[in-house]
Amino acid sequence: MRSVSILGATGSIGASALDVVRRHPDRFRIASLSAHRDVDRLIALAAEFRPARVAIADAGLIDALADGLRESGVDAEALAGPAALEALASDPAADTIVAAIVGAAGLGSTLAAARAGKRILLANKEAVVLAGALLIPALASGGGELLPIDSEHNAIFQCLPRGYDGDPDRHGVERIILTASGGPFLRTPASELARVTPEAACAHPNWTMGRKISVDSATLMNKGLEVIEAHWLFGAPASRIEVVVHPQSVVHSLVAYRDGSVLAQLGQPDMRTAIAYGLGWPDRIEAGVAALDLAALARLDFEAPDRTRFPALDLAYHALEAGGTAPGVLNAANEVAVDAFLNGRIGFAAIATVVRDTLERLAAEPVRDIDQLLAVDRAARDAALRSIAERA
Ligand code: NDP
Question: What is the 3-state secondary structure (H, E, C) of 119-144?
Fold first, then answer.
């Protein structure tokens, strides 16, 4: 029986993870759950899964949470604030942490889980982009394990040899190939991109996801963040991480080996496959995902990404090559710019412009520690807000 904490339980990944847990009451029990502000959903989930501890990141909502739990007859400890997330992540009562908070807000709890030696099912890619240089050593010193559940990285994990130690050369790995659906604007002319709406950007053709990652998929920044994530998780330099557009989202990613072999992982575009892989690892467990019918699918298409219409991808490669704090600056600026786009303050095409402006304003520094990374994150958010104000 594994004891699982889901940080970001009220989101899209949280829902998929809970769906897999619900299918296996003999294998998993929920130790704790967290949300940011969605108290009602959190209480409903607590009533169903009966965790020992429940946390709300917005500290102003602690009374609403405690009252709601009591009224629902849930005997769980209610906690609040960012420190509560770290407490759940390092709680000895849980052995598995699903890191499903969106954005840099997930960093503290992901790091805490790594230091505490947990099995981390990592969806929160922004934490790795911002602080891969701290997270990977924290995992090694904590003695836990990281199982990527971002579908592309989960696919790569599945295609790498068991015991892969982060050295591509030692294992004959030539390239890591990340597939990208291309998002909802794959065929949208450049002249129309400035006018697309948040609703259109969030209407992903293949995946149902939270709003922030949906916009990232539409700009291809999601793929850029994943390139940086792949660098940290698999030890490959930028020059050996490739992106190919694959509109059907059936091939979730590939690994090319020195002998000419290319291994791919295929499946439905449903996050429950990757989550079930992480929850059950090393066993394979039922995920509720339909079988893949290759004959019905008939074809798989691949093409190079359009780096002119989607400049965010190259911005991410540049940030990875600049190294140090540059990926953190990229991530923070992108979070601010996506929020501004979702709230109607800037157009879609301006997201990449704000990120580029911010990268130009803040020079990369070598990573020293968490305080420095958090200070850089704040400075990048301020710089991005100035860039947005200048364009209003
Ligand atoms: P959602 O927006 O659907 O959910 C985000 C979750 O994080 C919610 O539980 C939310 O709580 C919580 N949260 C938001 N802000 C904060 C904060 N400041 N402090 C604490 N908790 C917070 O996102 P997704 O589930 O789509 O994505 C989660 C992560 O997984 C992201 O990093 C994303 O890139 C990654 N990912 C997602 C995929 C998908 O298919 N959705 C695929 C691959 C990776 P509340 O509901 O209260 O706001």
Answer: EEEECCHHHHHHHHHHHHHHHHHHCC
Q: pLDDT tens across 240-251, in order?
A: 999 999 999 999
Top-tier CATH class for 323-392:
mainly alpha
Q: Does residue 91 have its Cβ closer than 6 Å to ligand 1? A: no
What distance in angstroms lies between residue 57's CA and the mean position of ligand 1's atoms? 12
Domain boundary assignment for the chain:
2-148, 323-392
Residue nearest to atom 40 of ligand 1 (CA): 209
Task: Report pLDDT digits (tens) over 140-188.
Answer: 999 999 999 999 999 999 999 999 999 999 999 999 999 999 999 999 9
Q: Which residues contact 218 (CB under 8 A, 6 or more apart)?
A: 183, 184, 185, 196, 201, 202, 204, 348
Q: Which of 217, 34, 230 is nearest to 136 (CA)?
A: 230
Is the shortest distance between the CB of 38 and ligand 1 below 6 Å? yes
* Closest C-alpha residue for ligand 1 atom 43: 150
Q: Same CATH fold, 323-392 and 2-148?
A: no
H/E stretch holding 44 reads helix 39-49
Cα angle 218, 224, 226 (rounded to 5 degrees) comes to: 105
270: Cβ below 6 Å to ligand 1? no
Q: Ligand 1 within 6 A of 13 CB?
A: yes
| C-alpha 341 to ligand 1 mean position (Å) | 18
Q: Which fold has domain 2-148?
A: Rossmann fold (3.40.50)
Q: State the closest ligand 1 atom to the C-alpha of 13, by its place in the atom list counted from 1.
A: 25
Element containing residue 178 per DSSP (H, E): strand 173-180
